[in-house]
Amino acid sequence: MPDRKILVELVDADGTAIGAAEKLAAHRPPGALHRAFSVFLFSPEGRMLLQRRADGKYHWPGVWSNSCCGHPFPAEPPFLAAVRRTVDELGAAPELLAGAGTVTYDLADPRSGLVEKEHNHLFVGTLRAPLRPDPEEVGASRWVTPGELAAQRASDPFSAWFGTVLEAAGPGIRSLLPGAGW
């Protein structure tokens, strides 16, 4: 990948675009509110795909998180960015992907000193294709049931945003998978 600065879209408290900033600069304290997305993918049997972020990531390395997350480029629709990054990170496209709302948060990474000050667009969907994860993005992946997720959250480190985005996406997940226990 060529050495280039990646831009993120800055937003106001209502999620309206107000400009752009270099990605790393937007994550330096105190942080700049910017657009992001989080994807929750499920197998046909209703298992959730988790990924462990690669150890080489500049912030939140080596922790478990949702199936995929990232940032749209300025003026890129969040849905298209979510599909693009899912393919980039996991090497597979979702079979189905639907919006599940938004959530805003401001969280600090104590290890790197960076912050996540994000207006996050949430997506839920299904995935049948085999995974071909990019090792620079994904350290490991795992399909879990609700009970397995609860046990893993009690024993392994997760991204600081995981609980927030999971709770906010809950209605969309339950709509996608009624009766699956999510």
UniProtKB/TrEMBL annotation:
Residues 32-168 form the Nudix hydrolase domain. The keyword Methyltransferase does not apply. Pathway: Isoprenoid biosynthesis; dimethylallyl diphosphate biosynthesis; dimethylallyl diphosphate from isopentenyl diphosphate: step 1/1. The keyword Metal-binding applies. One of its GO terms (molecular function) is isopentenyl-diphosphate delta-isomerase activity. It catalyses: isopentenyl diphosphate = dimethylallyl diphosphate. Its EC number is 5.3.3.2. The active site is at C69, E118. It is found in: Cytoplasm. Its main location: cytoplasm. It is an enzyme of class 5 (isomerase). Its cofactor is Mn(2+); Mg(2+). Keywords: Cytoplasm, Isomerase, Isoprene biosynthesis, Magnesium, Manganese, Metal-binding. Mg(2+) binds at E89. Binds 1 Mn(2+) ion per subunit. Binds 1 Mg(2+) ion per subunit. The magnesium ion binds only when substrate is bound. Belongs to the IPP isomerase type 1 family. Catalyzes the 1,3-allylic rearrangement of the homoallylic substrate isopentenyl (IPP) to its highly electrophilic allylic isomer, dimethylallyl diphosphate (DMAPP). This is Isopentenyl-diphosphate Delta-isomerase.
